[in-house]
Amino acid sequence: MKFAKFKSVARKIGIDRAIAYTIAGKGWTGVAGLITILLLARFLSRV
């Protein structure tokens, strides 16, 4: 039900499927980058 509501809102503001996938990919890249930085800071030993 929530997905259908998202689709209707997305269509009203002009976001098609390709743009939605691009936005999702950019979001995933940002989250993965933050997780990588946190893991490096936590587990990389000091020299």
Please provide a written account of the structure.
- This protein is mainly α and 47 residues long.
- It is built from two helices and no strands.
- It has helices at 2-13, 17-43.
- The N and C termini lie far apart (53 Å).
- The model has no long low-confidence stretch (mean pLDDT 88).
List keywords for this structure.
single chain; 47 residues; 83% helix
N-to-C SSE series?
HH
What is the approximate shape?
rod-shaped
Mean pLDDT: 88
Radius of gyration: 17 Å
Main beta-sheet annotation: none
Low-confidence stretches: none
What is the SS-derived class?
mainly alpha
How many helical elements?
2
Q: Work out the helicity level.
A: over 70%
What fraction of the residues are assigned to beta strands by DSSP? under 5%
Total strand count, please? 0
Distance from first to last alpha carbon: 53 Å
Topology, element by element:
Blueprint: H1 2-13, H2 17-43
Task: Give a brief rundown of this model.
The protein has 47 residues and is mostly helical. The protein has helices spanning 2-13, 17-43.
